[in-house]
Design a protein that fits this description.
By secondary structure, the protein is α/β, with parallel strands linked by helices. Helix content is 35%, strand content 11%. The chain is built from ten helices and nine strands.
């Protein structure tokens, strides 16, 4: 994962970088509290391949540490997503402008990772048209279909999509993608938390696997709850980013009543 422009000098000690000198929308967590996102430094053309290689370098370290595989974070407004964007990426070189150019960084990052650790160990997560941190994709169906076609050529282990665009677009992307698809069925951080019905719905639409985020956090016995079809506990979002045990180690398992 590379945050790109979603970073702050008070956290990292350096000015964040991005495809263009366009700041993210919103405030960032820093050691002194939330602060507006700063203007990033636009990467020079010659620097961009090195940023793509950083994903491969991280992947090698993960595999050396014993992980089975890696998922490149191409979603939620971070660096890969910024290059895909039509408003965060204002470049006029080979990494900006056309769909083919805007997907280039994502393809290079995935290609480098595949070369480093193998296609069978490499996946990527995408949030088509998600709008996170102010990132826009005005051509999300065309853009993501083109990207999936390139990823199919690389034969990565899977693509992980978030439900961040209309369902008919996602179903079209499912048809475009010939490999394993992991689906996150609800909008991330939205009002609804994924449940069994959402999972079943997307399995019916062609997803191979379903990802759970908030439900996994709030339900230490999530698999058993899904198996027995008992209610899922809601997550307590007030405990996010607090650095303590509450909300991470204190959710109870389901209590059956007589």
């Amino acid at each position: 994962m590379h945050g790109g422009r979603v970073s702050h000098p008070d956290t990292t000690g350096t000015q964040p970088v991005g495809p263009s000198a366009v700041p993210a929308t919103g405030q960032l967590f820093t050691p002194t509290g939330r602060q507006p996102a700063p203007v990033p430094r636009a990467l020079e053309t010659a620097e961009v391949p090195g940023q793509a290689q950083s994903y491969a370098q991280a992947a090698r370290r993960a595999i050396d540490a014993g992980f089975d595989g890696v998922e490149l974070h191409g979603a939620n407004g971070y660096l890969i997503s910024q290059f895909l964007s039509t408003n965060a990426n204002l470049r006029t070189d080979r990494y900006g402008g056309s769909v083919a150019n805007r997907i280039r960084f994502a393809v290079e990052a995935v290609s480098a990772t595949v070369e480093a650790v193998g296609a069978a160990r490499t996946g990527i997560r995408l949030s088509p048209g998600g709008g996170f941190w102010g990132v826009e994709e005005t051509d999300a169906p065309e853009l993501n279909a083109a990207l999936l076609a390139e990823l199919a050529r690389l034969e990565v282990a899977y693509v992980h999509l978030e439900a961040t665009v209309d369902e008919d677009v996602l179903v079209g992307l499912r048809r475009t993608w010939p490999g394993t698809l992991i689906m996150n069925p609800v909008f991330p951080m939205g009002p609804k938390q994924t449940d069994r019905s959402d999972a079943d719905h997307w399995l019916g639409l062609g997803a191979d696997l379903i990802s759970f985020g908030r439900a996994f956090l709030a339900n230490p016995d999530l698999v058993e709850r899904l198996r027995t079809e008992v209610p899922l506990a809601p997550v307590d979002e007030t405990t996010y980013y607090q650095g303590a045990d509450t909300g991470y180690l204190t959710y109870p398992t389901y209590q059956h009543t007589a």
